[in-house]
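can u pls check wat happens w/ adenosine-5'-diphosphate
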Amino acid sequence: MEIIHVSAECYPVAKAGGLGDVVGALPKYQCKAGHIAKVVMPMYRTKFLYENEWTVDFKGSANLGNWYFDYTIIKEATNKLGFDLFLVDINGLLDRQKIYGYDDDSERFTAFQIATVSWMSSWEHQPDIVHCHDHHTGLIPFMMQYCYDFARLNRVPTVFTIHNAQYQGWMGWDKSRYIPRWDLWKRGMMDWADNINPLASGVKCASKVTTVSWSYMDELRYNSNGLEKLFEYERGKCVGILNGIDNEVWNPANDQYLSEHFSVKDVAKGKQKNKEALCKQFSLDPEKPLFVFIGRLVGEKAADILPDAVMSSIHNTQGNANFLILGSGDTNVEWQFQQMVEPFKGMFNAVIGYDETLSHIMYAGADFLLMPSRVEPCGLNQMYAMRYGTVPIVRSTGGLQDTVVDMGDPDGFGIRFNNASIFDVDYSIGRAVAVYQDKTQMEKMRKHMMQIDHSWESTVDQYTEVYAGLG
Ligand code: ADP
């Protein structure tokens, strides 16, 4: 099967979160399983672009409303990622360093989608599946079906995967002029609550909709930032498929970012070495349990309660725990963490920013990973933590609920709680500090979770089944 993934992110080209990890791994494992999977994404000006070889694959032009633009499609020349990677260049819109966060993001991603569909409709053959990811590509199923210029593609099945339904790409109807000539009777297929809603449009128009865990699929019908009724109505074509992790990138035995490697056999020793290096770097105490948080400092991740929860735990454990934070986002939360560094020196530290290398070292060196998320469609961090023998402490929601078993249950290896509250986080940290003293139990949990199979190999088959049902 030829599968064209279209996405705003793909690791290691450009990544802001889990979307990047998934689109960097799923196509690779689909190719290994015998499919022809390809990725199309915007040509941001990232390091990966400058450090690799490219060939020009296509040059075309299209319209964004009255604006006539040229686009160029370049292809990575060496199959470095294990799949064909195509970047779409549009001068003035996509030639930026960051992925998101510009005032003209609507224009940027709409033009990207138009260029991608326009390019695909120029092919002599047709792909078997066009697989779109999140709202940045949510208008593609609409365009393929209802834009007159792309009529050649209107029978190609589309799959739309929701990695995060909180962001929907809303645009006013005045921007409908951007969409190339379309069947005006189909206005409702782009509309939600009197706006153009690319995420809702993807759900309405795609042949099949998937999201990244079973529990999140259920939750969307009750909590999806205004789209609850849509998910209820469309439930027949929606399916939850738990994300995998790329075991080649995330492997403590040969992780390129670690200087001390370890496996399930020497986990205690290996983790301690990584922890010592980490504690030295951040003035922490390697004898005490190390709790880390890695992620976006936003409300979805309940980052707002973390500063108080950490201070409360430092107090309640009488300083018998270390904390290290890596993340960026809400400036107020960033500020609070920065203010805590000096007064809690020796037991707390924070790195405000994005650091791929440090994140790997933290998964390896930490004893516990905190994830109090209010919303967590799948969550990859807890799966990386498990692979590195780090006990996840998670709120029971979305993919966290589907992947973490509380240590009080048979074969449990993690800590779960119900509320994104200071009390619940603090209480759970108390449980963790207690179990940390029990070396036998810690060893048992680490070994158990490191051997859980979250590889893409098993997940790929579930996507193949979805595609096969659309042929
Ligand atoms: P989301 O996509 O909602 O941000 P996920 O758990 O699905 O959350 O994926 C987060 C990914 O981003 C993980 O690979 C995590 O390690 C990485 N990540 C998040 N924040 C940072 C950061 N500040 N530095 C390095 N990696 C980060």
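The first helix runs from residue 18 to 32.
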